[in-house]
Amino acid sequence: MSEEIKRVEFTAEMKKTYKILFPNMLTIHFIILKGVFKGLGYDVELLTTTDRAIVDEGLKSVHNDTCYPALLVIGQFIHALKSGKYDVNKTALLLTQTGGGCRASNYIHLLRKALVKAGFEQVPVISLNPAGLEKNSGFVIDLKTIRRAMAAVAYGDFITALHNQAKAYERKKGTSQALVDKWCAFLSDRLEAGKDASGSAIRFNMKKIAHDFSAIPLDKSLIGKKPKVGIVGEIYVKYAPLANNSLEDFLYSEGCEVNVPGLLGFLLYVFDNNIIDVELYGGKMSKKIANLLLRTYLESYEKMIRKNISDAGFAAPLPHSRVRELGKESVGLGCKMGEGWLLTAEMHALCEEGYDNIICVQPFGCLPNHIVGKGMIRALRRRHPDANIVTVDYDPGATKVNQENRIKLMLSVAREKIEAREKNGAKEAGEEKQSGCTAPSKEVGHNAGVAAQSTGQGSSRQEDVVSNVK
Ligand code: SF4
């Protein structure tokens, strides 16, 4: 950080009168998380703005070599402060930081520099991170906060998984989204009131949520006929519609089922890395033990999520321990810059779960994620030869049309695989009829298409897409 730029601390006094703005990275999780902050006495507002002026403001505020996620977040903050909607002498900014070794840990300094440049040097910036990077007397992360925030993450991952699986097949458009809105509002209010963060309350609510989603009337004739697409990549671009040009909406408009791995996996990855650091480079055993305990604590949420998803008849994601093992097949666990080994591991996991059409989203010029994403495609295809992957770069100069065209090419391969599978299925059924054999009936459910789709044949167009990204 530049010596001249003084950090403005967010004090306990400010907590009583300031509004805190924070960027909406995860559209479901952060609505619930907002309730957690409000319950702790903070006046928070999620920034949901999406217009092009944000990119322009980012370009004016930071060097154009800056990572795209930082450019967007900083642009969105400055855009909000300039909008006239907020009293800039009573507004603070909340920035999430991973605390990792990459440039993301320096975004906060870039933001402060941009604030000074724009004439908002009095605005305090609060860092929200799992590594204890900066402390503010008015914003204290204690056990109560962690417990409620973890409940918000668990609810967010759970609702996202059910929503993703139901939305693509719902008979009446908007049914699944209405349930998302209903439950996000309810859980946000409950957590604001300091309720529903205990394990038993989470289990109870998950059962009710699952019951609601499993009652959505689905068009089962479509199961197995839609391309199943997984999204991996740099965390902000992967989740934030502002960064990925509303990628999920685009995929739904193209008739896909979408799977975006949850946030809990990323938090587990952070603790994994602390443990692996001690194993590889040495360090205090107490650090390793503390992180093992934290990982076990987080895994208890994962178990709840997985169990309640499967109990409701939906497909649960693989456990993180398995995802980690899959990643190890292609990349060492010491590789932890950016999304590190997790990104490769998530691609493996998606293929195992039947989402072998993958979009790897990455900020342009993001070296770490190009290595563990694009750079691992060949290694991934050794285990999953049918994997149909496209990498898409995001930056201020990339056009949405170009990004969508690349994705459409990948989807055309996915559709060819589905057609080939259907033809093979019809042929096999004819042969069985002739020989008098009866095939065991396949269970019809949310998972019905998974196994079948992953056996789809490769095609020349698929080779095109892959060679395109090599
Ligand atoms: S992971 Fe990529 S986008 Fe994130 S800080 Fe590092 S280089 Fe920038």
Short description:
This protein is of the alpha/beta class and 470 residues long.
Task: Outline the structure in words.
The chain has 470 residues and is of the alpha/beta class. Among the domains are: 12-140, Rossmann fold; 226-262 and 317-470, no CATH class. 56% of the residues lie in helices and 9% in strands. The protein has helices at residues 12-17, 29-39, 53-61, 68-82, 107-117, 143-167, 175-192, 199-214, 235-239, 241-244, 247-253, 263-281, 285-311, 320-328, 340-352, 367-372, 377-383, 400-435, 448-454, 460-469, and strands at 19-23, 43-47, 91-96, 125-128, 228-233, 257-259, 357-363, 388-394. It has a 4-stranded parallel beta sheet, sandwiched between helices. Strands 6-5-7-8 form a 4-stranded parallel beta sheet, sandwiched between helices. Helix 14 packs across helix 15. The longest helix has 36 residues, at 400-435. The radius of gyration is 23 Å and the shape is globular. The two termini are 37 Å apart. The relative contact order is 0.10. Mean pLDDT is 89; it is low at 437-470. The chain binds iron/sulfur cluster. Residues 67, 69, 102-104, 234, 338, 363, 366-369 line the site of iron/sulfur cluster.
Task: List the topology elements.
Elements (H helix, E strand, L loop, with lengths): L11 H6 L1 E5 L5 H11 L3 E5 L5 H9 L6 H15 L8 E6 L10 H11 L7 E4 L14 H25 L7 H18 L6 H16 L13 E6 L1 H5 L1 H4 L2 H7 L3 E3 L3 H19 L3 H27 L8 H9 L11 H13 L4 E7 L3 H6 L4 H7 L4 E7 L5 H36 L12 H7 L5 H10 L1
Parallel strand pairs: 1-2, 1-3, 3-4, 5-6, 5-7, 7-8
Helix pairs in contact: 2-6, 2-7, 3-4, 6-7, 6-8, 6-13, 8-13, 12-13, 14-15, 18-20
The structure holds iron/sulfur cluster (SF4).
